[in-house]
Structures are given as C-alpha cells and as structure tokens.
Amino acid sequence: MKTNKNSRRFSEQAKEALAQILLFELDNPEFALVTVTGTDVSVDKSYIQAYITTQDGNSEEALEALNRAKGRIRTDLGHRLHWRVTPKIDFFLDPATEAAERLTYALQNVPPTLAKERVAERAEEREKEREQERAEERESELAEEHKQNLSEEQDAKEE
C-alpha cells in the first residue's frame, strides 16, 4: 500500500486501537493470545490491512474468528478513531513472523559447511605432519645414539 508520513501515523493509531479492542472489548477467548503486529492504512483512510500473530499456534482459527467478528471490530474501531470514514478491515497472518520461524529453524539445523570440513581436514593434516616430524626426530636421535655407542666401543677396543 502506498504510504506517506500521515498514513504511517494513522497506521500506528489503528494498530493501537485494534490491540485495545481485541484485548479489552471483545470477550472471545480465541483473541486472548492474538497480537496485532502491524497495520497498513490507505491514504484516504478507507481501508486497513491488519497483520496478526498468535502465540499458541492456532493462527488459522484466530484469523477465522477475527473475520467473523469483523463487523463488531469495525464499529468499535470507528468509535475509537473518530475518523470521517470508518475503514474496512482485512486481517492477515503476519508473514514476517513465519519467515523468522523458518529462518530460526534453518539456523538450528545447519549442515556442516564445506569451510568447516576443510578446516577440520587441515587440522588433521597438520597433526599428521607433526607426528611424522616427531617420528623422524626420534629416529635421528636413535641413530645418533647408536653412532656414539659404536664410537665409544671402538675407542674402548683401541685402548
């Protein structure tokens, strides 16, 4: 919907009014966990798109209940806002919260990436190289000791 400074301000007013109506004026238990996350008001204030979420996961049922009570909500909204025209209301599930849930799920179930695998492979290669260097050092030390022992034996024989 086209927005300007005034329509953003009217959207905020409509959001607060809808939240107050759902919280205090309607006695339907299906509205207990409904949150109005945002509204879009047309420039001429004749139409409102209200975006909702629910905490208990019954979004579709809450949406149906809101659509059944749309007339009462519109009447109460007209009394609260005091606009020249009482706007028509359409309720929608907030796509941002669904996208956030999908993103959270995806982040929790990330497969190991290729970069992590390469880091692990490099670490293993370095460890193998270090072990090989240690083994070569031990062999050279043993060979040096063996040479010393042989030279000491020859010195002992010569004496």
Biggest sheet strand line-up: 1-2-3
What helical percentage do the residues reach?
Answer: 55-70%
Biggest sheet features: 3 strands, mixed
Q: Which H/E pattern describes the elements?
A: HEEHHEHH
Mean pLDDT: 87
Q: Tell me which CATH architecture of the largest domain applies here.
A: 2-Layer Sandwich
Task: Describe the protein.
It is a single chain. The protein has helices spanning 5-25, 59-68, 70-81, 95-108, 114-158; strands spanning 34-41, 47-54, 88-93. The chain is an alpha+beta fold. The protein has two domains: 5-96, GMP Synthetase, Chain A, domain 3 (2-Layer Sandwich); 107-159. It has a three-stranded mixed beta sheet with strand order 1-2-3. α1 crosses α3.
